[in-house]
Every structure is written in structure tokens, then in C-alpha cells.
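Pasting two entries for a bug report.
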Amino acid sequence: MDMFPTPLFERIRRCGNVAVTVIEDPENAVPLARALLAGGVDAMELALRTPRSIDALRRVAAEVPEMLVGAGTVLTPAQAAEAKAAGAAFAVAPGFNPRVVRAAADEGLPFAPGVMSPSEIEGAYELGCTKLLKFFPASVAGGIPGLRTLAAPYKHLGVKFLPLGGLKLENTADWLAEPLVAACGGSWIAPAKLIAARDWAAVEANAAAACAAARKARGE
């Protein structure tokens, strides 16, 4: 079984950008999701790094069904189960933990573990992560040249990557022009300071800029 169903993978690829968010106050979750949608970004990763992040995820899944909301920083089997129960459409992690990948598979939760080495790619592929992997931390791991070198022996397998870490508006188009990249993970689209200030207009503007970069990269 592939950990990422094709329709889900294609939706993320079409969007081109996954807004990576950290939410302290669940009251901000729904307006944040709506601001992202208004700017054209319909996929978001809600990182499980705060005490009430699951509550925030649950609210987005229930109240903004047009948003494809996933759980990020899923580090344990228990978190995989919790994310699935809260309505996460997918989950990602910064690293590759076989126990978490297996738990996500058992839950029927599409999962993309983080990789930055050949051994991690091979381990993830063996466990069914054959369509999408997270490349993290992208800037530290060599950027686009680093990804090309890392992925070269596996190019025939057709695996695509979701880079995160050091991405910003100025280099999003460059990443999306790379055939190995399915979409970009962008924490710059809705940073914590904008969420805390409830500056939804700025979030919407950033989302629109991210979508414009995707269109530029794809010649649309």
C-alpha cells in the first residue's frame, strides 16, 4: 500500500504550497484557514507543537472542509492516532521513525516522513512511502543541488519531495521549478507573529504571493 493515495498527492501538487503553521490559540485556527483559502492556498500543515494544536486541527477539519488540513511534527504512534481521530487528511514528520510510519499505516493516515539521507529514503520506501517524502531541513541539507544529488539514485522510482526548512517567497519558484519537488512547505506564509496578531489580511497576501510563485514556476 502506498502511504499517499494518488488523488491526495495530486491535490497537494496542484496547490504547490503547503502552509506550515503553529497555533497556540485554537480560536485562530478557522480564520487562519479561511485567510489561506482566500489567498489560494488550500493545503496546510498544522504542527503538533502546542498543547491545544489537536483542538485547532479538529476545528479546521470540521468547520473548513474545503481546506486540506494535515498534522505536522507527528513524532509518536499515539500522535498519529490522535491526528487521524481529529480529522487530519495527512501527516508529516521532520524525520523518519519506522514505528510512526507503521502506526500511520495502521490508522489509514497518509504519511510523509522527513528524509535527508539515502538510508532514510530506502527505509521509508520499504514501508510504503513511495510517492511523497518530506525533505528536511532543506536549506541545511544542501538546497536544490543537495536534493538532486540525494535523489539521483532513486529517480527511476518516481518519488517526489516536499521541501521544508529555509524556504521563503524569494526561492519558492526555484524549488517548484525542480521536477523532484511536488510542492513547497512554507512556514513563511503564516508565521506565528501574524497568527498571534490575527493579521489575516497579511496571511492572505502571503498565500496569494505563494500561489503566484507557483504559477510562475509552472509557466501558467
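Entry 2 (this is the one that rendered wrong in the viewer):
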Amino acid sequence: MASRDELSLFVRDALVAGKSRPDITAALINAGWSESEIKDVLGAWAETAFTPPVPRPVQTVSARDFFIYALTFGVLLIGAINLVIVLQVLVDMLFEDDNYAAVERIRFGVSVLIVTAPLYLWLTVRERRKLVRDPALCRSAIRKWLTYIALLLASVTLLGDLIATIYAFLTGDFTLQFLLKAVIVGLVAGGIFLFYYNMIRQGEPE
């Protein structure tokens, strides 16, 4: 049974021989290859008249990318959670009299933010400067995966926040205190979603 490498080699040889992409596709389909496999392999070669065919840039994976982007994502997650906690505790303090426990939670949350906020900002600015100097770094597969993971978690959080709000409204637990806390979650998750969504639209993770 032919391997993916053999398929790629066949496509390259066919392009060198001057065969058209539709002809190559038809021949491979008749041989039993799926359209998705054919599309992926043909997509690895640029559609130019140059001979031999010109390979397209491929996504890269490195231990360095994993460390940097996983650290950045982890710092963002920890910071966002504690930002929500601090803001929600402040809301609780507006409606409740027991402030001692609330103050302790705020102190811990602020301590986390003092560490994570500057670290996340530094990591993000540092990587963006690297991307400007070397756009090839944008092809990091790990960067792309973690960007979509951030979008996924932000989307799930927004959906959960909306569901909780609707449920509270239907059960009669919908109060101003609850609304303010739900808005905080929505703003933080929404901000993260928009930030990474704009990165994708700009083509940075590709």
C-alpha cells in the first residue's frame, strides 16, 4: 500500500512532467485516494508555471515554541481567572457586609495579577517583535493550536455565562448582583476572544 510520502513524490513528478492538477486529481481518485488527501498533497506545491514545482512553506513545531506559547497561555488563563475573582468579590462587597474574607481573596487575586499581567504583556510583546523580524515564525503549529484553544475556552465561557444568566432569570434568582458578576465574566472572556480572533484575521497564526 502506498504511503503519504509516495503520494507526495508522485504528485511532484507529475507536476514536473507537466500534468495538470485536474488530470492528477482524476488519476489519484481512480487509484483510490480520497479528495481530501489529494487536496492536501497538491496544496503543498505552489500553483506557478515554474519548473520544478515550488513547495509551499509548512508549519513548524519546536520545543521552544511549546515552552513560550504554553507559558503565555497558562499565564493568561491564571490571570484571567483571578481578574474575574477580584472583580466579582468587589461586586459582592457592594451587597454584603462580611468583608474580611473578601479582602483576603482580593489580596491573593491582586498578588497573582501583579505577577501574571506584566509577564503576559512582556511575553506577548516579545513574541510580536520576533514575528515582525521573522514572519516565518507565524507558521508555528503550536502557536496556531494554542490560539484556537484560547478561542475555544473563551467561547465556552461566554456560552456558559449566557446559559447561567438565562437560567437565573427563569428560576427567579436574577439579581443586580448576579447580573454584574455575569457581565464581568462576559467582558473578560469576550476580550480574550476578540484579541485572539483578531490575531487569526490578521493571519498571524497561519
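Dev reply: Rendering is fixed now. As a check, the viewer should reflect this: The radius of gyration is 25 Å.
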